[in-house]
Amino acid sequence: MYFVDGRWVDAAETLIHPEDRGYLFGDGIYEVCRVYQGKIYQWEAHYQRFVRSAAELRIAFPWTSSELQSTAYELVEKNGLAAEDAILYLQVTRGAAPRTHDFPEGMKPVLSGFARKMARPLAQLENGVAAALLPDIRWLRCDIKSLNLLGAVMAKQQAKERGAFEAILHRDGTVTEGSASNLFVVKDGALYTHPANHLILRGITRQVVLELAAQLSLPVREEAFDTQFLAQADEAFFTGTTVEVMPVVSIDGQPVGSGRVGAVVRKLQEAFAATIGLG
Ligand code: PDD
Fold this sequence. Notes:
With about 280 residues, the chain is of the alpha+beta class. About 30% of the residues lie in helices and about 30% in strands.
């Protein structure tokens, strides 16, 4: 018998197995996709990253892109979102087995997901947001989109308690990314962002922005920079599935550049809107 939230249950009676390794160890991976007017944005990129996260953690991943996409669209439709702006969450855990840290034999991965309506954050995209600088206490494989998110959860909560929208994380003074977004800064007309190595998530929106920057002939440096460079930036912005291209107008109460949304980020926002069919 298992004890779950005040009840004694048999595993067969539970929807999520009490010994699912996602639940016990955060032993699983996930993707968050944007749905614009019922259409999933950048599906193939999300699928490819899902497969890579699984491979890095040696989690079985038996679904093809089209199988998983069908499930994803069913989630959208069954939740009445076929013409809505929404968010779609998919996760795969290694599976359920008697608890042991090493991988048990014969694990069957467990896929689950949900979708719900989510409007674009239009006011924040227009006016920009405040950020809080915080230490990056996460593990050293931030390139894997794993369920272990406590470092991100704690940072986001601290940012919120400081009146900020998002955290900007740094490792010993080197700026990495946001708690749930990538970070770019603009200095003298060039874009700077941390290289896509093990210290950040290779964001899909980040990739879209890199391509848009190339099309707009904006110079890009995928280079690590420090908090001092950040403090002297002309502009800064987060990128991510939920935040799109989000201007940062202040960091720890200090204005970024003029303290108003800058011209480069506006240009990228317009180009980004065009990629979702709103340009
Ligand atoms: N987060 N970096 C981190 C740490 C993230 O968690 C995310 C996304 C990103 C941006 O990646 P993308 O552009 O592919 O969304 C960067 C999702 C939205 C989340 O956990 O809710």
